Amino acid sequence: MDLRFNDEETAFRDEVRSFFKKSLPENIRRKMVEGKKIGKEDIVTWQRILNKKGWAVSHWATEWGGTGWSPVKQYIFLDEMQQAPAPSPLQFGVYMVGPVIIAFGNEAQKKKFLPRIANIDDWWCQGFSEPGSGSDLASLKTTAKRAGDHYVVNGQKTWTTLAQYADWIFCLVRTNPDSKKQEGISFLLIDMKTPGITVRPIQTIDGSREVNEVFFDDVKVPLENLVGEENKGWDYAKFLLGNERFGIARVGLSKERIRRLKELASIERVGDKPMIDDERFRTKIAAVEVELKALEMTQLRVVAAAKNGNSNKPDPASSILKIKGSEIQQTISELLFEVVGPYGLPYQPEQIEDDRVNEPPIGPDYAAPLAPTFFNWRKISIYGGSNEIQKNIIAKAILGL
Amino acid sequence: MDFELSEEQRLLQESVGRLLSDRYGFEQRTAYMKEPGGFSRALWKQYADLGILALPFAEEDGGIGGGPVDIMIVMEAMGRALVLEPYLATVVLAGGVLRHAGSKVLRAGLIPKIADGSLVLALAHSERQSRYDLADVATSAKKDGAGYVLDGAKGIVLHGDSADKLIVSARVSGKQRERDGIGLFLVDAKAKGVSIRGYQTIDGLRAAEVTLAGVKIGAEDVIGDPGKASPVIERVVDEAMAALSAEAVGAMTVMHEVTTDYLKTRKQFGVPIGNFQVLQHAAVDMLMATEQARSMAMLAAMMAAEPNAVERHKSVAAAKVQIGRSGRFVGKTATQLHGGIGMTMEYKVGHYFKRAMAIDVSFGDADHHLATLAKMGGLLAA
C-alpha cells in the first residue's frame, strides 16, 4: 500500500500538467477561475486543442482514438484538467453517447459519428428526462412508431442541457407501449435539424439559460439511427449512467475551487483581519477539505480496484462518489457565496455572461458569479439520478435491503 | 499508487482475523473483562506467538520490522473484535517511544520482553488539566545527581493499572505549556513514590490515574534527550491516532453490518423494517460514513511514517476529524435503528458505539483536530 505515484505516473502527471499550462487559452482559464460563463466557442476551441493532442477521448477504445491509459493515468488526467482549471470536453458526446455507440452501435454509426464527436464537429445533447419522468425515468412517454424506413417520434423531453447549440440529440423513446416499462424503450439518434423539432429555453433560478424543453412533433428518424436493438434502450441507458465512475466526484474541480475560496478569503476582511484568519470561517473551510480528502482517497480506492481488474464487482466505495462529490461541491459554492457577504446581492448577469462588458462591476470584481453559482449548483445533487435515487440504488444493490 | 496489501500483509490479516473471530465472542469478551487487569493474559500470549507484539520494532531490536500499514491491519481486526488487551498502550504508544527515542540498552532490555508478551507498558503523558494539548505538562523532573526526581500526577493512563513499567513525561525546564523542556522517563510501576489508581473506562477498557511523589530515576532510565521529547511524543501520538483510526473503522464496519442484518430480520407492520425507505437511507448514510472513514484511516496509515512532521500531522489530524465524525454518526444511527434492543448492555452494538466515542475523545476529538488543521492553513495550499 503506497500513496505515492510511481516514476512513470509522476512523469505522466508532469507531462499533462505542463501541457495544460501551455495549451489552455488564457481567456478560458481566467473565465474558469472567475466562475464566468464558458460559452460554446470556448468548449469547441478547447476540445479541438485536446483532440489535436489525441486526448479529447482519452478513455475510449484505442481504435476510435482512445489513449489506452491505465485507470490511474485516466484519473491523473482528469484531476489535472479540473485543477488547471480547464473545461471538460463536451460530456454529452465524449462521456455519454460516444461510449454507447462504441459498445452497442454498428460499424456505420461508429464511422459516421465517433470522429465527429471527438473533434466536436457535432454538438450532442441528451434526451432522457420528460415532464412526467424524472426519477422514474422508465415511465417516459415519448413514442417512436415504425413507418416504412423510418420512425415517427412524438413527445417532449426536458432539462435538455445546451440543446440550443445541439446538432444531434440521443433520445430514449418508447417503441413498445405494451411491454413492461423498461422493456419497451429504444435508444435513438436524432438530427436536431429534422422538421418537427422545437427547442424552448428554460431559465434557471440563477438566471442562466443552460437547459431547454425539446418538443417532437411527427419527427421522421431513419431506422438506421437506432442504436443496438429495438426495445433494449434501457440497458444502454443504464450503461451510460454507470459510466461516470471516474469523473463524477469532480475532486480536481473542488480542489481548484477551495484554492479560489482561500484566495478570496484572504482578500475579504472581517473587522481588522482577513476572513481566512477568522476562526469560524477557516474551520468551515478545513471541514470541507477533510471531506474532500476522504473523497479523493475513496476515489483512488476505486481507481486502484479498476487497475487491478476488479472492476466487475462494484466497489462499495464507488457508489458514494456521486453523493459525496455533489455535497462537497455545493458546500464549497456556499462558502464562496459567504465569502463576499452582502456583495453576493447585486445581480449582474452581464458580468458573468459577456466577457467583453465595459461597465465596471458593482462591488469587488470577483463577486458577480458567486451567488448565481451557488444557486446553479443545487442541480448537482438532482441531475444524473438525484442523491435520494442514488441512496435507493445503494440500499438495494449493495446492502440488499 | 497502490492500495493492495502485500502477500505477507494478507496473511497477517487472515491470521489475526481468524484468532480474534475464534476467541472474541461476546460472552468470551465479557469474561476477559473480569480477569485481573481487565483483559486476557492467555490471548496476550497468543498475540506474542502470532508475532504481532513484535510487529513495529526493528529486526535488530528483536522485532519484525513492520510499518504503519501492518499496524492498521491489526488494529482494524481488533476494532472488529472490540479487544480489551493493552496493544495500543504497550506496542504503539510506549513501544513507539522506545522505537524513536530509546537507547540501544533500553531497547535491548525491553523490546524482546514486549515481543514475548512478558512485559506490559503504558505511556503516562496527559494530565488532569492538559486536555488535548501535548505540550501541557506540569509534572516536574528535577535533576538529582546523574538522574532525576519526578513529582506530579498523570491522568487517563491507558492500561496504567496493569503496566509493569510506565513511560512518564515530565518537565525538566520551561513553563507549563511550553513545547520545549519535556523529558521522558522509564518508571517501574512498583517504584517508591508511584501510586496507581486503576478504573474501568466507559468502553470496558482500563485506565489509571498515576501519582508521582519524589520518584527517583536513574540515568539509565532517561529516554532520549531530556527537554527535547516533544517531537517524539507528537510522532508517537500521530502513530497512535493512525492506529486508533483503523480500530474505529473495524468497529464502524461491524456496527454497519449488524444494523443492516437487523433491518433485514426485524419485522414490524408485517414486513422487515429494511423495506422502509427512511431506514434504508439511514443505512446508506452509515455506509458512506464508514467508507469515508476507511479512506482516511488508509491515508493516516500511509502518512504515519512521513518524514515531514507537518504533512504527517495534517494528514493524521484530518483522519482523526473524519474518524470522530463518522464514528459518532455510525454509533448513534446504529443505536437508533435498533430501537430498544440497541440500548441494552447484553446486545453488542452499544459496546461498539462506546468504543467509537472513546476513540473520538482520545488524543483530541474531531473539533480539536479541525481547529488545529484550520490554524495550520488546511490541507491545500492557497
Per-chain topology:
The complex is a heterodimer of chains A (401) and B (382).
Chain A: H1 7-23, H2 26-34, H3 40-53, H4 71-83, H5 91-104, H6 107-118, E1 124-127, E2 143-147, E3 150-157, E4 168-174, E5 185-191, E6 197-202, E7 211-222, E8 226-227, H7 233-241, H8 251-267, E9 269-270, E10 273-274, H9 279-307, H10 316-340, H11 349-353, H12 370-376, H13 387-397
Parallel strand pairs in A: 1-4
Antiparallel strand pairs in A: 2-3, 3-7, 4-5, 5-8, 6-7, 9-10
Chain B: H1 7-23, H2 26-33, H3 41-50, H4 68-81, H5 87-101, H6 104-115, E1 121-124, E2 140-144, E3 147-158, E4 165-171, E5 182-188, E6 194-200, E7 206-217, E8 222-227, H7 230-265, E9 267-268, E10 271-272, H8 277-303, H9 309-338, H10 349-360, H11 366-375
Parallel strand pairs in B: 1-4
Antiparallel strand pairs in B: 2-3, 3-7, 4-5, 5-8, 6-7, 9-10
Describe this structure in words.
With 401 residues, chain A is an alpha+beta fold. Chain A has three domains: 7-89, Acyl-CoA dehydrogenase/oxidase, N-terminal domain (Butyryl-Coa Dehydrogenase, subunit A, domain 1, Orthogonal Bundle); 124-231, Butyryl-CoA Dehydrogenase, subunit A, domain 2, CATH 2.40.110.10; 248-397, Butyryl-CoA Dehydrogenase, subunit A, domain 3 (Up-down Bundle), CATH 1.20.140. Chain A is 45% helix and 14% strand. Chain A has 13 helices and ten strands. In chain A, strands 1-4-5-8 form a four-stranded mixed beta sheet. In chain A, strands 2-3-7-6 form a four-stranded antiparallel beta sheet, with no helix packed on it. In chain A, a hairpin with a 2-residue loop joins strand 2 and strand 3 (150-157). In chain A, helix 4 runs parallel beside helix 8 (251-267) and helix 10 (316-340) runs antiparallel to helix 13. The relative contact order of chain A is 0.10. Chain B is an alpha+beta fold and 382 residues long. Chain B folds into three domains: 7-119, Orthogonal Bundle (Butyryl-Coa Dehydrogenase, subunit A, domain 1), CATH 1.10.540.10; 122-227, Butyryl-CoA Dehydrogenase, subunit A, domain 2, CATH 2.40.110.10; 231-375, Butyryl-CoA Dehydrogenase, subunit A, domain 3, CATH 1.20.140. Helices cover 50% and strands 17% of the residues of chain B. Chain B contains eleven helices and ten strands. In chain B, strands 1-4-5-8 form a four-stranded mixed beta sheet. In chain B, strands 2-3-7-6 form a four-stranded antiparallel beta sheet, with no helix packed on it. Chain B has a two-stranded antiparallel sheet with strand order 9-10. In chain B, a hairpin with a 2-residue loop joins strand 2 (140-144) and strand 3 (147-158). In chain B, helix 7 runs antiparallel to helix 8 (277-303). The model of chain B has no long low-confidence stretch (mean pLDDT 97). The chains are: A alpha+beta (401), B alpha+beta (382).
